[in-house]
Amino acid sequence: MQDEQDLAQRAQRGDKEAFAQLYETHFDKIYRYVILRVGKRAEAEDMTQQVFVKAYESISSFRWKGIPFSAWLFRIARNLVIDYIRKEKKRPTVSFEESLVASDSNPGLEVEQKLDIEQVVSATRRLTEAQREVISLRFAGGLSVAEVAGVMGKTAGAVKALQHSAIVALRKVLLMGEDSEKG
Question: Which domain holds residue 132?
Answer without folding.
Answer: 2-96+104-182
